[in-house]
């Protein structure tokens, strides 16, 4: 464990233990032939593993932090929002149910609406990333491996940038497809790596920017501390901070003004 400000050290430790529990549950059902899948009212999928992970984390939080509130993708909001744990039990459910290894559990703590702890755990990739305000951002490549610090890239010009746009359909539905196409013509490289992995590649300095639409608070809350503690900037596509704006634009910071201009 890396040094963490005393105010959030216990919270980060708890979040990492919650991630261990989530990994046990999700890994056991990944690529199972009898995995049960339902369709939610918004036409997205939910698996038995999504539900089991969130139930387990809620039970742990009820025991460890009974005064704190919880916001989860599958079971909604409960408790006080002053200190709120935000859970996406399996980010990348479509990948999970198809057997694609790009998925993970997202766990965040927000205090008065500010994300101060974030953990992203991707057992199928053998990776975990985490951060707490003032403690930097960290990753490890396998269980028991030595943590290493994260730092965003130093790319300062769009013509040298590598970006991830997540999904053409998202940008088309949001009315931004023409601007996305124009942006891809001005950068060095564009790909759609998808879900939480794009943002973690940004924090590692491998990508330079990520943009996305159709996202909810639980999709982004855990990512924000990691990107920001790695030196990046995280806003909506229109430049508004926070995870509840329906879109995201994360970058190494140096490129953020140019990206906002390109998408305006």
Automatic annotation (TrEMBL):
InterPro entries hit by this protein: Inositol_monoP_metal-BS (IPR020583), Inositol_monoP_superfamily (IPR051090), Inositol_monophosphatase-like (IPR000760)
Biochemical pathway: Amino-acid biosynthesis; L-histidine biosynthesis; L-histidine from 5-phospho-alpha-D-ribose 1-diphosphate: step 8/9
Catalytic activity field: L-histidinol phosphate + H2O = L-histidinol + phosphate
Stated name of the protein: Histidinol-phosphatase
Keywords: Hydrolase, Magnesium, Metal-binding
Pfam families tied to this protein: Inositol_P (PF00459)
Cofactor names: Mg(2+)
Positions bound to Mg(2+) 2: 90
Annotated EC: 3.1.3.15
Cited SUPFAM superfamilies: Carbohydrate phosphatase
Taxonomic lineage of the native organism: Bacteria, Bacillati, Actinomycetota, Actinomycetes, Micrococcales
GO terms of molecular function: histidinol-phosphatase activity; metal ion binding
Gene Ontology BP term (one): L-histidine biosynthetic process
Task performed by this protein: Catalyzes the dephosphorylation of histidinol-phosphate to histidinol, the direct precursor of histidine.
Broad EC category: hydrolase
Lineage: superkingdom: Bacteria
Binding site for Mg(2+) 1: 73, 88, 91, 219
Annotated family: Belongs to the inositol monophosphatase superfamily.
Stored Gene3D superfamilies: 3.40.190.80, Fructose-1,6-Bisphosphatase, subunit A, domain 1 (3.30.540.10)
